[in-house]
Amino acid sequence: LLPDQFLPVAEETGLIADIGVVVLDGACRAAATWPIDPSVGEPTPVYVNLSARELSDPHLADRIAATIDAAGIDPAGVHLEITENALLEDAIATKAALLELRRVGVRLALDDFGTGYSSLAYLKHFPVDALKIDKAFVEGLGGSGGDGAITAAIVDVAQRLGLQTVAEGVERAEQAEWLTALGCDLAQGFHFAPPLDAEAVRAALEAQCDGSAPAAIDLTAPPAPTTPAGDAMELGRG
User: Fold this and answer.
1) How many domains, in total, are found in the chain?
2) Distance between CA atoms of 226 and 44, rounded to whole angstroms?
3) Exposed end of the chain (fewer CB within 10 Å): N or C?
4) Residue 67's domain is classified under what CATH number?
């Protein structure tokens, strides 16, 4: 059962909040077992999606703080992803919720940037730390369309605002090379690794620490697995 087959129903029925609790708890507890990234000397970050319904929960920040505290990890290593459409539900309430999350110490990423009702005003009014470039733009990198120009513009704006950029859906080496040339910070996709469970991520990180390359992962630079279901790598290192 794929996520897009049950998540809309979970959102409609309110079950998404319960799913979110389980996912965040599992991700934080898994991250607590992962080794320090030897390339930067920091804990490996974990990325978790937040739904619009979760953002409307007045106890969200306290719940997330308690979950992180129970796992014993640094809140700065927890990155919460919010879609552009979620910001439209109630802009004033959403901004207040994001500020409360910032108080907890977590990082905030705007997911699927450029595919919703995008506005650069979002980047001015909402307290986000990173932009995730949607795979729809990554797919066409190097082609004759405008995807390269759009991606370059997103990276440029993010850099000027001091935001991190993460490219989604990287499946080919040439896409990774384009993103590196554009100055994109991180990338994730099948070019680096298929979706992995928490134990596989831990094993991959341990292999990085001892200098051996995990056979299941195609590496062009040291990776930074982000969740039990996906990996990201820092571009421009190797």
Assistant:
1) 1
2) 7
3) N
4) 3.20.20.450
